TrEMBL record:
This is Esterase. Signal peptide: none annotated. One of its GO terms (molecular function) is 1,4-dihydroxy-2-naphthoyl-CoA thioesterase activity. Belongs to the thioesterase PaaI family. One of its GO terms (cellular component) is cytosol. SUPFAM superfamilies: Thioesterase/thiol ester dehydrase-isomerase. Keywords: Hydrolase. It comes from the Bacteria. Residues 51-127 form the Thioesterase domain. Pfam families: 4HBT (PF03061). It comes from Vandammella animalimorsus. PANTHER family: 1,4-DIHYDROXY-2-NAPHTHOYL-COA THIOESTERASE 1. InterPro entries: HotDog_dom_sf, PAAI_dom, Thioestr_dom.
Length: 139
């Protein structure tokens, strides 16, 4: 059973990120399912740190983007969402290609959501794992 409470599509998610930090970093939503959103981000000059590795902050941008989008669309109409806390553990260096993040819910409550985001490299190896807590606000 889908968790989404608002109309959602890959196209809508990508359109909503146009002209933002998300599009500047090349993040694009690839897929969504009944309880997940998946997006990818290039590992290139926009997302690397000076030593040629994927910048950890860019991994966090990908994680927060996925978790925030998921929380918004899993919230009732008339609600906004804001981040309360994000944690990220950087597990493996990535130097090129793409990383793919997938957000899934841990907890969907009336006033808070907690999302689990896994980011993997092109070989499917875990590069970063993140947990995002969102506040659900009535407009």
């Amino acid at each position: 059973m889908p968790i989404w409470k608002k109309p959602i599509s890959v196209e809508l998610l990508n359109q909503s990120a146009a002209h933002t930090a998300v599009s500047h970093l090349g993040i694009e939503v690839l897929a969504l399912g009944d309880d997940f959103i998946q997006a990818r981000m290039p590992v290139d000059e926009r997302t690397k740190q000076p030593f040629g590795l994927l910048h950890g902050g860019c991994s966090v941008v990908l994680a927060e983007t996925l978790g925030s989008q998921a929380a918004y669309y899993a919230s009732p109409e008339g609600c906004n969402v804001v981040g309360l806390e994000i944690n990220a553990n950087h597990l493996r260096a990535v130097t090129s290609g793409w990383v793919t993040g997938t957000a899934r819910p841990i907890h969907i409550g009336r006033s808070t959501h907690v999302w689990h985001i896994e980011i993997v490299d092109e070989a499917g190896k875990m590069a970063c794992i993140s947990r995002l807590t969102m506040a659900i606000l009535n407009r």
